[in-house]
Write a structure and sequence with these properties.
globular, transferase, GlpE_sulfurtransferase, Oxidized Rhodanese, domain 1, EC 2.8.1.1, five-stranded parallel β-sheet, Rhodanese-like_dom_sf
Length: 100
């Protein structure tokens, strides 16, 4: 399984980012540009995944790692973000919070 750090994620510019946290977690704040497809729904929403390579993030890296492993077995080019959104925030990076 391919993995990148939060620092490496911050340096990327055109790689789609899928956030597999639940909707309420995503709404509380997420990496700018991330698209929310919760882990619990991803099997029913495969058509929404990018055709090209993409990154997968969760809160700490565990859920996203499981999702990446499952997607790789289906032929997707997915990369896990180690440390997840929690590490992104811990490094003081900006987050997006959708307006209510």
């Amino acid at each position: 399984m391919k993995s990148i750090t939060v620092t490496e994620l911050a340096e990327r510019s055109n790689t789609p980012l899928i956030d597999v946290r639940e909707v309420h977690e995503f709404a509380a704040g997420h990496v700018p540009g991330a698209v929310n497809i919760p882990m619990s729904e991803i099997g029913d929403r495969l058509e929404e995944l990018p055709a090209e390579s993409f990154d997968v993030i969760c809160q700490a890296g565990g859920r996203s790692a499981r999702v990446v492993e499952a997607l790789e077995s289906r032929g997707y080019d997915a990369t896990n973000v180690e440390g997840g959104t929690g590490e992104w925030i811990a490094q003081g990076r900006d987050i997006e919070v959708p307006s209510a």
